[in-house]
Amino acid sequence: MHQSMGSIGYIEGYSSLVTQAYALLDSHDEQQRWRQACVQERHDVGTLGESALLRPLLNLNTKLSKPIDFSQFESSHAEQAQTGEWAFTEYNDVIKPSRTRSLSEDPLALRYQVTLHELASVLDIPSSEVQALVDSGAILPTNTTTVLRDQLFDLRPLARLVGQIPGLVQNAGDHCCSCVAVAKGSGLFRRHLTSYGKLLGAALTGQVRAYLDDSRCLSSIHVEEPELLNWLDQQLSMACEQPVAVHRAARALACSDKKIRELARQGALTWAKWSQNGERVDGESLHKLLEQTMIKDMEARQDAESL
Q1: Which among 204, 203, 221 has a CA at the least distance from the CA of 212?
Q2: Which pairing describes strands 244-245 and 280-281: parallel, antiparallel, or unpaired?
Q3: 115 contacts: CB under 8 Å, gap ≥ 6
């Protein structure tokens, strides 16, 4: 399912399409066969997990008042379900031109196209993190619009990059003794003025050596602690090369905007000498204060562990 529509004009095979649609909604066997067809025909994105393999099914479920429970079909059972052929027919005639422009060069491209929100769902990350992946070059839009919400992405290049990230278990004897798991909601990103999307983009493009656990889920990755700390320090240094907006400084220090102004009055922070877009603090003074805060936090943890 590539695009939902209220109605469509006549297309060849329309009656067969309608019959098949009703059968899909009502028949357990048809649902199982469609699941199997997705697994077989979309195997190129298997490294991204079932959310990518079964994307047409998941998209359909968002439109149904009574969603189909596809989880009832175990993968092993679906692969054995060969009772009749279920044609994986794709109807491109009514798809809007922005989605079909590349089909002359790659007839299967439509099958792997996803929107911003679908991509975020496949990766199990917030939609706000996708821009960082685009900026890193880990994934690029297939259309020309610069409006992120209207961009379309091909899952296949991303699947190949994910497939190149080694598993944690197979490398346990080599480098993973000092690996730490970093999840999408970690406070490390807030304190270093960066994001999980940037770290994931660095991992996918080989700038940071990362590992995936058995689930191959991208909502967390494993990175050797020294390399992670070095990357975080670089991110903080780069962010503080320029004046930092008050709200970002407050988020990094886990305080309110009011507290930032109070710290500036006390001399712990200094205001940027020149700012075009409202209140901003001097990046160097913020960098210094954040480092002091992180050192105090580390000493407090060490004291607590020694008790």
Answers
A1: 221
A2: antiparallel
A3: 149, 151, 152, 153
SS3 203: helix
Give CA angle at 73 (72, 75), nearest 5°.
135
- Contact indicator for 113, 154 with CB cutoff of 8 Å: yes
Cα(34)–Cα(12) distance, rounded to whole angstroms?
21
Give Dmax over CA atoms of the chain in angstroms.
76
CA–centroid distance for 211 within its chain: 16
CB-based burial label for 203 (10 Å; 0-12, 13-18, 19+): buried
136-174: b (≥16 Cβ within 10 Å) or e: bebbebbeeeeeeeebbbbbbebbebbeebeebeeeeee
CA 66 and chain centroid, separation: 27
- Please name the residue that has the structure tokens 């880990």: 138
Question: What separation in angstroms does the CA of 127 have from each of 163, 184, 257?
Answer: 22, 12, 25
- The residues, ordered by sequence, that sit 6+ positions from 45 with a Cβ below 8 Å of its Cβ are 52, 53, 112, 155, 156, 159
In angstroms, the CA 7 to CA 271 distance is 57
List the single range of 16-20, 149-153, 281-285 with lowest mean pLDDT: 16-20
> Residues 86-98: pLDDT tens digits?
455 666 666 777 6
Number of residues in the chain:
307
Q: How far apart are CA 37 and CA 41, in angstroms?
A: 6
Q: Which residue has the higher pLDDT, 128 or 24?
A: 128
Write out pLDDT tens, residues 107-123: 778 888 899 999 999 99
Would you say 12 and 83 are in contact if contact means Cβ atoms under 8 Å apart?
Answer: no
Q: How confident is the model at residue 223 (pLDDT cuts 50, 70, 90)?
A: very high
